[in-house]
Write a structure and sequence with these properties.
Elements lengths: L2 H149 L3 H49 L10 E5 L4 H7 L4 H10 L2 E3 L6 E5 L3 H17 L4 H30 L6 H9 L4 E2 L2 E2 H19 L3 H10 L14 H11 L4 H9 L10 H13 L7 H18 L4 E7 L4 E6 L6 H18 L7 E5 L10
Parallel strand pairs: 7-8
Antiparallel strand pairs: 1-3, 2-3, 4-5, 6-7
Helix pairs in contact: 2-8, 4-6, 5-6, 6-7, 8-9, 8-12, 9-11, 9-12, 10-11, 11-12
GO cellular component, one term: plasma membrane
Protein name: Ribonuclease Y
Membrane topology: Single-pass membrane protein
Length: about 525
């Protein structure tokens, strides 16, 4: 190829490139213009939409502002109307008070005028009385002078004789009057005292149910009796050993009798039987577990009973230990009378009597509820229950009047408070009601407790239960510390001590139980 041809080819290529560049620039410029136009149109549309939205928002805000303005205006007008009404009411009251004040002022003016007239009248009457007195004195002096001439006595001598005669007559009349007044006061005091006591008794309605030594556990059918007895009687023996009561399973339909002098033990046995029958699993291990849980629940129930009692009686600020001892009263008796019921009744009687006499009813009620608190002290003490109760009340910061009333209600200390005789009287009223108490029951229960305490005094004795109405003493000993030979000797020693130190009818059977247990846990 010649140079001219190459040049032509190169020139044509350059021209083609130039044309392509120009065409590309033209196309790009056209595309850019098109996109710029679209962007401007889109921006204009966005601006229109924004203006429209802004207009809507503006309208909404205006509407909200108008509504808020109308609401505030309504509230303001309502508040203003209320205040206007109050002002009008106050103005009306002020007018009425002003009228009443004006009437009072007018009445006072009338009274002042009447008083002035009365004063003038009294002054006139006083002047008249003074004149009459002067005239009477002159007449009296003339009469005295005439009498002195007739009686040959001066006025002073006659006055002295008259005074002596009047003194003698006054002494005689005064003595007679004092004597009759004292007799009348004595009769009146006796009547008033009887009236207060009778009204107090009449206003206090109380139940008089004597507690006995048995509880009845009702069952749905007699098939449960076999489960309770267990194979060869092992279940019933385990239940009696755990609770310390006697379980009597006889031919009585749908009933099991729980016998024991201690109401707490009977209640533990009854609740344990109820849980065992509901659960259906009745065997010695389960029995011991249920009895232990029931005993814990009874302790909690004692606290709950105490708290409920003080709340119902309206007594506040008692120490928790005193509240707990009040709960224990529910399961104790005094001569066959439930101790809590007796104490509640005494508290109500004391409050009523104190009210009649114009004394402090709260202190009287407090002392009445706590007067037998010494009977439920869990530890052994040689002090009488009244003195022990007084010491407990002092220990727990009770009022001195309450402490004295507790300690003196059996005349074991001197009464220093007016509450003390009231507590004593109300205690006698509660205990002397027909059917309220039974002396033989208390002595019987005390004999059973002495029997148990005597056996517990021997070394190696863990538990001791008096059953069969005191005809049998069941003693449970520690198998680790007491051998079989020593167990036999222990029963003999207990029987000898009972024979020497106690008085009892018939004979007492001493049963010593030694049971060896080995416990291990698989973990």
């Amino acid at each position: 190829m010649s140079n001219s041809q190459i040049f032509i080819v190169l020139l044509s290529d350059i021209i083609a490139i130039g044309v392509g560049i120009f065409a590309g620039k033209y196309i790009f410029q056209k595309s850019f213009d098109q996109k710029e136009k679209e962007a401007q149109e889109r921006a204009a549309e966005i601006i229109r939409n924004a203006e429209s939205a802004a207009e809507n928002i503006k309208k909404d805000r205006i509407l909200e502002a108008k509504e808020k303005y109308l609401r505030l205006k309504s509230e303001f007008e309502e508040d203003a109307n209320k205040k206007r009404g109050i002002l009008q009411s106050n103005e009306q009251k002020l007018k009425q008070r002003e009228q009443s004040l004006n009437q009072t002022i007018e009445q006072n003016k009338r009274r002042e005028n009447e008083l002035e007239a009365l004063k003038t009248n009294l002054n006139q009457q006083l002047e008249t009385a003074v004149k009459r007195r002067e005239e009477a004195e002159k007449s009296l002096q003339q009469q005295v002078a005439q009498l002195e001439k007739i009686a040959n006595l001066t006025a002073e001598q006659a006055r002295d004789q008259l005074i002596d005669a009047l003194k003698a007559e006054a002494d005689t009349r005064a003595g007679s009057y004092v004597k009759s007044a004292m007799e009348e006061a004595r009769l009146t005091a006796t009547k008033e005292a009887k009236k207060i006591v009778i009204e107090t008794i009449q206003r206090t309605a109380a139940e008089h149910a004597i507690e006995n030594c048995v509880s009845v556990f009702n069952i749905e059918n007699d098939d449960i009796k076999g489960k309770i007895i267990g194979r060869e009687g092992r279940n019933i023996r385990a239940l009696e050993a755990a609770t310390g009561v006697e379980i009597i399973v006889d031919d009585t339909p749908e009933a099991i009798v729980i016998s024991g002098f201690d109401p707490v033990r009977r209640e533990i046995a009854r609740l344990s039987l109820h849980r065992l029958v509901q659960d259906g699993r009745i065997h010695p291990a389960r029995i011991e577990e249920v009895v232990a849980k029931t005993r814990k629940n009874i302790d909690d129930e004692i606290v709950e009973i105490g708290e409920r009692t003080v709340i119902e009686m309206g007594i506040h600020g008692l120490h928790p230990e005193l509240v707990k001892m009040i709960g224990r009263m529910r399961f104790r008796s005094s001569y066959g009378q439930n101790l809590l019921q007796h104490s509640r009744e005494v508290a109500k009687l004391c409050a009523t009597m104190a009210s009649e006499l114009g004394l402090n009813t709260k202190l009287a009620k407090r002392a009445g509820l706590l007067h037998d608190i010494g009977k439920v002290w869990p530890e052994e003490s040689d002090l009488p229950h009244a003195i022990l109760g007084m010491e407990l009340a002092k220990k727990y910061k009770e009022n001195p009047e309450v402490c004295n009333a507790i300690g003196a209600h059996h005349d074991e200390i001197e009464m220093t408070s007016i509450l003390s005789p009231i507590i004593q009287v109300c205690d006698a009223i509660s205990g002397s009601r027909p059917g309220a108490r039974r002396e033989m029951m208390e002595s019987y229960i005390q004999r059973l407790r002495d029997l148990e305490n005597m056996a517990l005094s021997f070394e190696g004795v863990e538990k001791c239960y008096a059953i069969q109405a005191g005809r049998e003493l069941r003693v449970i000993i520690d198998a680790d510390n007491v051998s079989d030979e020593k167990a036999g000797m222990l029963s003999f020693d207990i029987s000898q001590k009972i024979e020497k130190e106690m008085q009892y009818p018939g004979q007492i059977k001493i049963t010593v139980i030694r049971e060896m247990r080995s416990v291990a846990y698989a973990r």
